[in-house]
Amino acid sequence: MSAAGDPAAAAAAAAAGEDQPRAGVLAQQLLNIVLFVTILTSAIAFIEPSPHDLLMFALFAMCVGARVPFDRKLVPLVVLLTLWLLGACLSLIQLGDQAKAIQYVGTSIYLALASVTFACMFSDGDLVRLLVLRRAYILAALIATAAGYAGFFHLVPGYQVFLDNDRVSATFKDPNVYGPFLILPLLLLLVGTLTRGIRLFGMLATLVLLGGLFLSFSRGAWLHFGLSAAVAIALLLATASDPRTRSRMVVLGLLAVVATALLVIAMMSIDSVHDMFVERAKAIQPYDVGPGGRFWEQRLALGEILDHPNGMGPFEFGRVFGTQQHDVYMQGFLVYGWLGGAAYLTIVLVTLATGLRAALVPAPWQTYLIAAYAGLVGEAVEGFIVDTDHWRHFFLLLGMVWGLTVATINDRRLAWRLDAGRDARRDPALASAV
């Protein structure tokens, strides 16, 4: 397995760009700078529009300026996203001129464009660009987590801004969004440790982010991370090049589990952490059951889906029944209608199926794809208990998986053609088939 994310590999990829025209190289460098800043600001999500949203438009422009190509293998993603958005627009017809609902659909359009942009950016498997993403995302997560620690332990004036009902929301509005935001950088660090060994920075950063994830007290995020980590480890073991590498990964994985357990035990020794954990660790919370509870609302939502083929439109279910159903797949049908809901479900299923096949294929960027795919699996499962259709990091994961899947397909086809060419040179009778 190639050690994607290795600075040496990234440097080699950068050196390959020396043959490009000078203007092209400059455009690529500017694109990577804008990508770094855009991802870095993705942790600032307590205001709307956020700096990240504004910078995404700069990133769109830089992609055009750097002539980032659109691979036709991304057409299915574009078609499915278009159907999803078409369903959203059709659902608006019945609502009339409601600015909030129109803004909601506008956000969906923006996020769909963002996912396609990321897919295009990573469809060539550029290791330098992937390394830029990795560094920016880990740094963004560390900044958000530092704010979370400052809030939870009352280290700064106005610490309440980083809390939501004594749970860490950090630089996000909701702990249930902050927690999942940390999972991709945690997976990148975990995959890096299992493939390249223990590094001091990686170990410290992992512990800091794990602590931040724990203090979000988000049961969904905890489940998300556990499932995603398990998927990432399983894929790494399945694609390990030899038994020795596999054994080393098992040992490092066990050490990671032990370190995580020790971290949780240490944090539980703090009274405020212990009390909140005991409360949040309950399998069923008061807002889950009974009239008006999460599961009650989901039963109501199923009936409304059947009664509204065109959907109810944004916020309508909550307006009618007082709260949301907390299920992104029901959300898809309730807000975007049967057309949009079916398209969203298809996007998730197709991405998981094609991404799994690509993640098992050796490629220089394989570890990045494994991390992104594992994160998407966890997020897809978490979608059964929370609405994730406007989570920015979901669309980043979606774009990464599609882009790196396309890169892997192209890489395999190129390798096949090179092999066929070598065979043809050895046997002239095969030349006409190449």
Quick rundown:
The chain has 17 helices and two strands.
Gap from first CA to last CA: 29 Å
Q: Let me know the number of strands.
A: 2
As for the number of domains, it is: 1
- Described by the principal axes of the CA atoms, the overall outline is globular
Strands of the biggest beta sheet: in what spatial order?
1-2
Helical/strand content category: mainly alpha
Unreliable parts: 1-19, 430-434
| Rg over CA atoms | 23 Å
Largest sheet: 2 strands, antiparallel
User: Which percent band covers the strand fraction?
Assistant: under 5%
The number of helices is: 17
SSE series: HHHHHHEEHHHHHHHHHHH
Helix content: over 70%
Average pLDDT taken over every residue: 87
Features:
two-stranded antiparallel sheet; disordered C terminus; 71% helix; 1% strand; mainly alpha; disordered N terminus; single chain
